[in-house]
Amino acid sequence: MAAAHPIIVRRTAFEIDERIPRYWFDGDPSATHFLNSLSSVFPDGEAFFVRSVRKYRDRVEDPELGQAIRGFAAQEGQHSRQHDRHLKLLYEQGYRGIERANDVMGKVLQWSANRFPRLSLASTAALEHLTAILARRLLTDPERWIGPMDPRMARLWEWHALEEAEHKAVAYDVLMQVAPGPGMRYWALASNTIAVFFEVIGRTGYMLWKDGLLFRRNTWASGWRFLFGEYGFLRGLGPDYWPWFRKGFHPRQQDDGPLIEAGRARVAMQIAN
Questions:
Q1: Residue 2: which pLDDT band, with cuts at 50, 70 and 90?
Q2: At what angle do helices 63-92 and 29-54 cross, to 10 degrees?
Q3: Among 12, 75, 182, 190, whose Cα sits 20 to 30 Å from the Cα of 129?
Q4: Cα four-point dihedral sign 162, 166, 172, 175
């Protein structure tokens, strides 16, 4: 199993404003709105992650894991704030339905964290597994996935992907101290995978509808290519996804060290400039 990587808290701000084109991923509405939809769930989602992990920090006796929890919370807080700025830009562009959806989602997540804290922690670990997989996709082939983005959005997404890779095991390690049995872990990934997929696809459809593009054949064709085509964003993720259900699984069994080191160098240069 790969060693844990230091969790570096990078205090930065990104140029997220009206200069960013509406279709900032290669001019493609379908791809852009899929990524917009992912971004729109991050502010409430990552606040939920922090609450769920911090709930059990008093149960953690390992000082290294305690330090990792603090780094995790600081990184996720930064992610929430930066993606909230993107969310406000989406509101300004006319996608007010996203605001109403987030009001509902925020209340549901708050209720869940209070009423079912162990399940919320398991859900956090499962969702961190999903975000680590997507982060690995971005960092493995930045030319394909980050290169087509508007440079301002590219900096945001590469920075976020890097930090997801750095802290990918923290929530899982806390879960193993609180609820080490496999049943809740299996249920959490299966149910949250379905929930997140339909939430993001629903938001993508809403934004395409607002743009008058939802019922155009080329919209569906380009969306399918982006997600499931030969080099689709979600295609071929099974080998990273399914090990979660394997006995003895741990997130660091997948060594992201080379990706993290390369990503750190690129992100450091971006922040310096």
A1: confident
A2: 140
A3: 12
A4: negative
Total residues found in the chain within this entry? 273
Give the pTM: 0.96
Pick the closest to residue 137 from 148, 145, 129 (CA basis).
Answer: 145
Domain ranges of the chain: 29-272
CB atoms within 10 A of CB 158: 21
- Tens of pLDDT, residue by residue over 225-245, are 999 999 999 999 999 999 999
Question: Residues 145, 25: contact at Cβ < 8 Å?
Answer: no
- List beta partners, residue 149: 25
Q: Which long-range contacts (CB under 8 A, 24 or more apart) does 56-60 make?
A: 56/117, 56/121, 56/174, 56/177, 56/178, 57/174, 59/174, 59/177, 59/178, 60/174, 60/177
